[in-house]
């Protein structure tokens, strides 16, 4: 992540003690993952549609900041697993979808009718394209490629969306949130393009190497 990777040391220092406390209490990392998803989804889907943008953004922001606790716990007890990574990734998709769905519902009920439809479209685009960004990386890794590149990774998308939401809740024009979501949607689309181009180059190089190997083997057998 553009912002996420830079903040990894910070989150480890801040939330390491919390992770150690949960481990001593016998709490499972998977339970923390699921609880965080439920809390994020409930907060976004209940508070945002009702217009409680400040409280909603702050609560979701705090929960998102603690997202690394489950990973820290798993490493401390030596229980990192493929299922844990799968669960964490899946729960992230649910949380992200709930956040943008909550914003869609906020715009449906928005008092400023002029920005209602643009806001709905922008938030919906962020929901769809954000999922596509994550799918592009997951699919690439499933084919044994790497696609950990991009302008708008998960941490970046959430920070932009939550900061803009908080700003509107504090009195900024609703246009600020709409504009931020539009820019976020474009950045997500660009990230999908970046990842597609990255995988294309890797696939082309792999195909070329395989053709060269097949050509050498064929030439040797004919000789």
Approximate helicity band: over 70%
Beta-strand portion reads under 5%
Shape: flat
Order of helices and strands: HHHHHHHH
What is the level-2 CATH architecture name? Answer: Up-down Bundle
* Count of beta strands: 0
Mean pLDDT over the residues: 87
The gyration radius over C-alpha positions equals: 21 Å
Low-pLDDT regions: 1-5
Q: From the helix content, strand content and strand pairing, which structural class follows?
A: mainly alpha
Helical element count? 8
Count of domain modules:
1
Under the CATH scheme, which class? Mainly Alpha
The CATH topology, please?
Answer: Four Helix Bundle (Hemerythrin (Met), subunit A)
CATH H-level superfamily: CDP-alcohol phosphotransferase transmembrane (TM) domain
The main sheet comes to: none
Structure description:
The protein is mainly α and 223 residues long. It has a single domain, classed as CDP-alcohol phosphotransferase transmembrane (TM) domain (Four Helix Bundle (Hemerythrin (Met), subunit A), Up-down Bundle). The chain contains eight helices and no strands. It has helices at residues 8-24, 29-47, 53-65, 69-76, 82-108, 116-142, 154-169, 174-222. Helix 1 (8-24) packs across helix 4 and helix 2 runs antiparallel to helix 4. The radius of gyration is 21 Å and the shape is flat. The N and C termini lie far apart (51 Å).
Key attributes of the depicted protein:
mainly alpha, Four Helix Bundle (Hemerythrin (Met), subunit A), 79% helix, 0% strand
């Amino acid at each position: 992540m553009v912002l996420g990777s830079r903040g990894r040391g910070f989150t480890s220092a801040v939330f390491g003690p919390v992770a150690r406390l949960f481990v001593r209490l016998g709490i499972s990392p998977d339970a923390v993952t699921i609880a965080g998803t439920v809390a994020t989804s409930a907060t976004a889907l209940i508070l945002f549609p009702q217009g409680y943008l400040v409280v909603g953004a702050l609560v979701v922001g705090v929960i998102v900041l603690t997202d690394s606790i489950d990973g820290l716990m798993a490493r401390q007890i030596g229980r990192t697993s493929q299922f844990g990574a799968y669960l964490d990734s899946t729960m992230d998709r649910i949380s992200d979808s709930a956040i943008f769905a909550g914003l869609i519902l906020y715009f449906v009920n928005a008092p400023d009718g002029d920005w209602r439809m643009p806001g709905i479209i922008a938030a919906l685009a962020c929901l769809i394209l954000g999922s596509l960004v994550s799918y592009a990386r997951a699919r690439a890794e499933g084919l044994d490629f790497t696609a950990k590149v991009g302008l708008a990774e998960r941490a970046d998308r959430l920070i932009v969306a939550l900061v803009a939401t908080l700003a509107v809740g504090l009195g900024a024009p609703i246009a600020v949130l709409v504009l931020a979501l539009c820019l976020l949607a474009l950045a997500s689309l660009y990230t999908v393009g970046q990842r597609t181009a990255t995988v294309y180059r890797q696939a082309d190089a792999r195909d070329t190497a395989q053709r060269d190997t097949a050509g050498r083997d064929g030439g040797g057998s004919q000789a």
